[in-house]
């Protein structure tokens, strides 16, 4: 995609809790767009140091990667927990961001946290778990929740590589308005982590211009990367800022 003056529009991908930017690799394979696969902070750091990070620290980490990337105009794609963080990132780049895609994502109301998006009973249970056990779920919970439609090999890799996040990235409020750009929500029909009722609540918060339904579990970038790629490409081409479609160099 190109804008007037030959300015390239890029796509920033922000992964969900416990994962790494590399989770998107199959989705962006073969793309002719500049892409940035963001890593949330301290993927290889020690758990004790990461535990003290705030939501603002996470947002700053994302912003540092965007600045180093050097692409002026971009669309944000955010998955799961990253939906809340992306709202604050979008506020910082109001003049540069031209669209946002939320994939099975948490979208709190202004001032709310990720935790605030959960139903009351689940919120109480999750708060208790955070205090008692921290942010690394038991292996059985990871397998049943975010890996329900993955292969055995993919599941083992997710479990092995799972990075516990800070508690405050779940509990800190996000004081950012909805971005005034085209907004899209990808609703995941087989998601065992974010129920359809919860996703519908997030959709109401997000007020997207379009909702796309994908028959996938919580990690469609692993279980069905080709279909997710097609969905994203369709949304990107529909973006009013995309202009004439022309070939550009892939950046990955």
From TrEMBL:
Ranges where the AB hydrolase-1 domain occurs: 11-230
UniProt keyword list: Hydrolase
Record bears the keyword Hydrolase: yes
Gene3D superfamilies named among the record's database cross-references: alpha/beta hydrolase
Keyword Hydrolase: yes
Pfam families: Abhydrolase_6
InterPro entries xrefs: AB_hydrolase_1, AB_hydrolase_fold, Sec-Metab_Biosynth_Hydrolase
Top-rank lineage group of the source organism: Bacteria
Gene Ontology terms for molecular function: hydrolase activity
Official protein name in the record: Alpha/beta hydrolase
Species per Swiss-Prot/TrEMBL record: Brevibacillus invocatus
């Amino acid at each position: 995609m190109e804008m007037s003056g030959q300015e390239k529009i890029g796509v920033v991908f922000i992964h969900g809790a416990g994962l790494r930017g590399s989770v998107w690799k199959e989705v962006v394979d073969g793309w002719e767009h500049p892409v940035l696969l963001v890593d949330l902070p301290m993927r290889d750091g020690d758990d004790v140091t990461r535990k003290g990070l705030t939501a603002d620290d996470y947002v700053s980490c994302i912003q540092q990667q965007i600045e180093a990337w050097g692409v002026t105009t971009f669309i944000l794609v955010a998955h799961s927990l990253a939906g809340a963080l992306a709202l604050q990132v979008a506020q910082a780049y109001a003049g540069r961001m031209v669209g946002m895609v939320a994939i099975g994502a948490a979208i709190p109301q202004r001032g709310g946290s990720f935790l605030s998006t959960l139903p009351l009973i689940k919120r109480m249970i999750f708060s208790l778990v955070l205090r008692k056990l921290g942010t690394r779920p038991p292996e059985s919970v990871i397998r049943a929740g975010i890996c329900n439609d993955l292969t055995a090999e993919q599941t083992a890799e997710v479990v092995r590589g799972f990075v516990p996040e800070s508690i405050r990235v779940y509990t800190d409020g996000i004081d950012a308005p909805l971005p005034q750009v085209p907004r899209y929500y990808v609703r995941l029909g087989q998601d065992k982590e974010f129920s359809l009722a919860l996703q519908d609540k997030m959709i109401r918060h997000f007020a997207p211009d379009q909702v796309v339904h994908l028959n996938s579990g919580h990690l469609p970038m692993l279980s069905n990367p080709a279909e997710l790629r097609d969905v994203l490409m369709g949304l990107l081409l529909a973006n009013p800022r995309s202009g004439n479609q022309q070939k550009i160099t892939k950046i990955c």
